[in-house]
Design a protein that fits this description.
By secondary structure, this protein is an alpha/beta fold. It folds into two domains: about 5-15 and about 25-90 and about 165-300, Rossmann fold; about 100-160, no CATH class. The chain has helices at about 50-60, 80-85, 110-115, 120-130, 150-160, 180-195, 205-210, 240-250; strands at about 5-15, 20-35, 40-45, 65-75, 75-80, 90-95, 165-170, 195-200, 215-220, 220-230, 295, 300. The radius of gyration is 20 Å and the shape is globular. It binds adenosine-5'-triphosphate and nickel (II) ion. The complex is composed of two ATP-binding proteins (NikD and NikE), two transmembrane proteins (NikB and NikC) and a solute-binding protein (NikA).
Length: about 300
């Protein structure tokens, strides 16, 4: 059984226009994804495709003007806002992109200790510091005294001591050099090897493929494909959705062929398939009905014509 299931999730924002009038802009529509224990799910897709909002929806930290529908389940039971408050930081942990998530006024040792749910907090904090090469004196430091690398390792240490079973890492590697990227990815791999379900949100497909089990491809606020990692190879022949193939071919180490056009804006979503306006395979029916997610060759796809 999956540890986390997202079914038919939609997220809209109320945007006030004049006075009390508002329009709804839908930023995530009918999104489906599941996470298994011991597995790394990598989430890729253009900027603005809804990756961070999915993470925030799972953790229950969307802004108050967000309207959501659909179901998120944790360990088979619906994740209600009340359950999210209980599980956030204990069973489900976020490794945020920004080190600004550390409390600037609290010594880092104490911050990590507050995340320990069971057992001796100090012993656990020291053990995890040792494991991530954070010296004993770091305990007493404030976040501003840490180097970038130390701050990131502190965030990983916080997730580690929490004992969470689901770890969501939102772009943990932007702008880092390759040794530091490998280190960050190895930490995530360790979480999965210990039985956690890991979601890695990233733009760096090439690095992520080294640790991924499954890849979810997002486009304009929805999943268009979920594929086992092996299918991201060669010319992308084994991929299912035309957008995933295009994304794969656009990588520098492949043919570096970009696709024309751009992802539709949330206020101007096409009524049929969201990718149809840019799709070489688009047929008249694609412009009429939104395809649903279906199983295909050990993965899933949201395209009526994919084979
Ligand atoms: N509070 C908000 N109010 C209105 N729209 C929002 C809000 N937060 C996010 N959005 C919109 O939701 C869409 C998805 O945003 P999201 O941050 O999830 O994208 P992303 O896939 O994480 O992008 P990136 O790769 O750049 O981090 C974007 O179009 C964004 O402008
Ligand atoms: Ni994001």
């Amino acid at each position: 059984m999956p540890i986390l299931e997202v079914e038919n999730l939609s997220v809209s924002f109320k945007q006030y226009t004049v006075g009390l009038k508002y329009k709804k802009s839908t930023v995530i529509s009918s999104l489906d994804v599941t996470m298994e224990e011991g597995e790394i799910l990598v989430v890729v897709g253009a900027s603005g495709s809804g990756k961070s909002l999915l993470a925030h929806a799972i953790l229950g930290i969307l802004p108050s003007n967000a309207i959501t529908s659909g179901v998120i389940k944790y360990a088979g039971e619906e994740l209600t806002p009340a359950r999210q408050r209980v599980l956030r930081g204990s069973e489900i942990a976020l490794i945020p992109q920004s080190v600004n998530y550390l409390d600037p006024l609290m010594r880092v040792g104490s911050q990590v200790r507050t995340s320990v749910k069971n057992g001796n907090a100090q012993a656990k904090q020291r053990e995890v510091f040792n494991r991530y090469h954070l010296k004993t004196e770091v305990e007493k430091m404030y976040p501003f005294q840490l180097s970038g690398g130390m701050a990131r390792r502190t965030l990983v240490a916080t997730a580690m001591v929490s004992g969470a079973r689901v770890i969501i890492a939102d772009e943990p590697t932007p702008g880092l050099d390759s040794a530091v990227i490998s280190e960050a990815l190895n930490h995530l791999k360790e979480f999965a090897d210990n039985g956690c379900a890991v979601m890695l949100i990233t733009h760096d497909i090439e690095s992520a493929l080294k640790i991924a089990d499954k890849i979810a491809v997002f486009y304009a606020g929805t999943t268009v494909e979920i594929s086992p990692v092996e299918h991201f190879s060669g010319k992308g022949e084994q991929l299912r959705h035309p957008y995933s193939k295009a994304l794969w071919r656009a990588l520098p180490q492949n043919d570096f062929i970009p696709i024309a056009g751009s992802q539709p804006h949330p206020n101007q979503l096409p009524s049929g398939c969201l990718f149809a306006p840019r799709c070489e395979m688009a047929a008249p029916d694609c412009e009429k009905v939104r395809p649903v997610m279906r199983n295909l060759r050990n993965g899933m796809v949201r395209c009526n014509h994919a084979t």
